[in-house]
Amino acid sequence: MSFSTLMYHELRLSDEWKPEQPSPIDVRQSYEDALPLPLFASVERFKEQMAYLQDKEYHTLTLDELKRHYGEGEPLPERSVLLTFDDCFQSLKTYAYPILKEYRFHAVAFVVSGWLHNEPKPFNPLQSACLAVNELDDISDVFEFANHTHHFHQRTGPDSSSLTLKSDEEFRLDLIECNKLWQLNNRDVFAYPFGIYKSRNVEVLKQSGFKLAFTTEPGLNDSTTDPLQLKRNVVPYFMDLDAFARIL
């Protein structure tokens, strides 16, 4: 049986979002970049998508269910989907959390631990600011948290990132540093920053005891998919419901 993993980053209300204006990223570490258009999703359409999943009786997977599926061969429930959010931007708490809670859905947030602010910041829809560390506690009844590096979420070229340029030992130590965040309740689950990685990165994860890792390659997953190279389907801002249904 196959399942889809959906990937979100930022949510915005349609009347507060300006697609022609870059959204600067505001994180604790020194970082200069803006979030690109395909990584935004509409709050209104997100709610419509979640209503669709409920109407079609989809089961939102937990990471433990996936670990048992790939580790022990345990079958997944019919009509399963995994909801994932990268980077822990403020819209995770402001918009995604109450909608998911309303539908009693589970979701996964991949955390760049070095990006989390020490104190909460006011929400500004014109920038992409990360949550503060203690804000993760406020959404932990809906979200599971997993590793997205501590300090290696930096693009260095079209096909390279800090992760791919670092040594295996540096990567291993960064994994350990991110896993020190006590809210991480899945310290054996990883998402590759930007979906950029090399085979040696997969090997480091395997040697470090990681059970699951997620790419940004689109498509469905099944029992034959490498659990350290799981596919994810991005849900962009302008995706209508018919297109959404096709990636499930």
From TrEMBL:
InterPro entries: Glyco_hydro/deAcase_b/a-brl, NODB_dom, Polysacch_Deacetylase. It comes from the Bacteria. Pfam families: Polysacc_deac_1 (PF01522). Transmembrane segments: none annotated. Residues 79-248 form the NodB homology domain. GO terms for biological process: carbohydrate metabolic process. Gene3D superfamilies: Glycoside hydrolase/deacetylase. Keywords: Signal. GO terms for molecular function: hydrolase activity, acting on carbon-nitrogen (but not peptide) bonds. PROSITE patterns: NODB (PS51677). PANTHER family: POLY-BETA-1,6-N-ACETYL-D-GLUCOSAMINE N-DEACETYLASE, PTHR34216. This is Chitin deacetylase. It comes from Paenibacillus oryzae. The lineage of its organism: Bacteria, Bacillati, Bacillota, Bacilli, Bacillales.
